[in-house]
Amino acid sequence: MNVNDASQALGPSSYIVLGLLSQCGSGTSYDLKRWADTSVGHFWTFPRSQLYAEPQRLAALGFLAETQEDSGRRKRTYRVTATGQAALQDWLSQPAGFPELRDLGLLKLFFAEQGPPEQVRLLAAEQLALHRERLAVYQALSGLPDSAAEGPSGFGRHTLRMGFLYEEANITFWTELLDSTPLSQPPATASVPE
Amino acid sequence: MNVNDASQALGPSSYIVLGLLSQCGSGTSYDLKRWADTSVGHFWTFPRSQLYAEPQRLAALGFLAETQEDSGRRKRTYRVTATGQAALQDWLSQPAGFPELRDLGLLKLFFAEQGPPEQVRLLAAEQLALHRERLAVYQALSGLPDSAAEGPSGFGRHTLRMGFLYEEANITFWTELLDSTPLSQPPATASVPE
DNA sequence: TACGGCATGTAATCGGTTACATGATTTA
DNA sequence: TAAATCATGTAACCGATTACATGCCGTA
Asked: Which of A37, A106, A134 is the best residue to mutate to test the B interface, defined by the most B CB atoms within 10 Å of its own CB?
């Protein structure tokens, strides 16, 4: 069974586990959770339970080696094998394809465009607030020294930059939308001079 | 069983079906596929088979009414019920939450940042090409008259605008990255004057 | 030593993807 | 009328989410 054999076809979460472990040497499922939360978690999340299931799968494939404690909880620690490392490299060297926006807010907007403007405004206001919040988080992160920003517990300079651009684009978009969507009840007293 | 009862918790694909059928009156699974391809499909895709399974589910919940042909293929046509319409409206009025980038390219970049620059360059070049392509598609779409751009078979003015901004952000990002990543083998013959 | 939060797992369910299968309709 | 394409569905599998369950450890 070859690494280049496409029959494996692991999913993204598998490679997140592989990648994090590769960067950190070794760790438990909980370690993975903590690392993910402060790095990839900024743009790619999944439930914690995946971080227990995924390593099992990878270990069964020979991509991870597993050691289990003798004491109480018999907790499992994983590390990447040479085969696993090769699989990761192979994946990295493959084209990534086109990403989808898959934005729930956009989806709702798409269907709300025909409806009452007030609903659009509400949506825009919500999204605007969320994106501003997130931009602030990124701004805080970018102030950190490189040592903290890089590595398994950091966001990575480049990925952080994309986060920035993404948030900016969103803020531009929802702001424009809010500004161009009429209020539901323009005050009847206001006069519109010709 | 109330529409406002959160026990339903349909997924996004359910609402895409609901939304498209609501806009178009009625249609078959194949109609849904065609509508989706030219509208939401630009930023949210899923396999065609979903468009056969999803309406069944919705019909079972009373959100769609189904009529079946008597002739050969006995094909099914769906339309939204009043209950379904209410469920859609309810969903639209709910906050959408924060969207994730979930970009495979970014993910690979995150793990490739530590590795050889050449791999980063390859990735950046691929992504740049894909995003430029997509931007061109959006440019073409935006040239269309409103009648073609709006409605179930159109992208929608607003969503299209966001597509634009997203592609621009990506092009900026991957271009910057490509420009800032050193070539793997700078020609050994080149002299670097002090 | 009791309690709250941290840490570590398993089980059940379900939506989504892939693969399979075949009927109609157009066109060469 | 054969081939190609359009159209319509089903079945099996699997990753991902939710919910359940419980052990360790610091501190009040």
From this structure: A106
Residue A20 to residue A58: CA distance in whole angstroms = 13
| Residue A13: closest CA among B48, B47, B107 | B107
Nucleic strand D within 7 A of Cβ A73: yes
pLDDT for B193: 55
- Enumerate the H helices of A38-181 as residue ranges: 50-60, 82-93, 104-112, 117-143, 146-149, 157-180
Residue A191: per-residue pLDDT: 58
Contact flag A96-B39 (C-beta cutoff 8 Å): no
* pTM across the whole model: 0.91
β-partners of residue A79 are: A26, A65
Residues of A in contact with B112 (CB under 8 A): 92
Say what percent of chain B tops pLDDT 90: 74
Q: Give pLDDT, residue A185.
A: 66
* Greatest distance between any 2 Cα atoms in chain A: 85
CA–chain centroid gap for A26, Å, is: 22
Relative orientation angle of helices A50-60 and A29-37, to the nearest 10 degrees:
120
CA distance A194 to chain B (A): 28
For residue B84, give every residue at least 6 positions away whose Cβ sits within 8 Å of its Cβ, in sequence order, or none: B18, B21, B22, B58, B62, B63, B64
* B57 is near strand D: CB distance < 7 Å: no
- pLDDT, averaged across chain B: 90
**Three-class DSSP category at A67:** strand
Query: Does the pLDDT value for residue A141 go beyond 70?
Result: yes
Compute the CA torsion angle A60, A61, A65, A68 (nearest 10 deg): -10
Q: How much is the average pLDDT of B136-165?
A: 85
Q: How far apart are CA B161 and CA B157, in angstroms?
A: 6
Per-residue confidence (pLDDT) for residue B57, from 0 to 100: 96
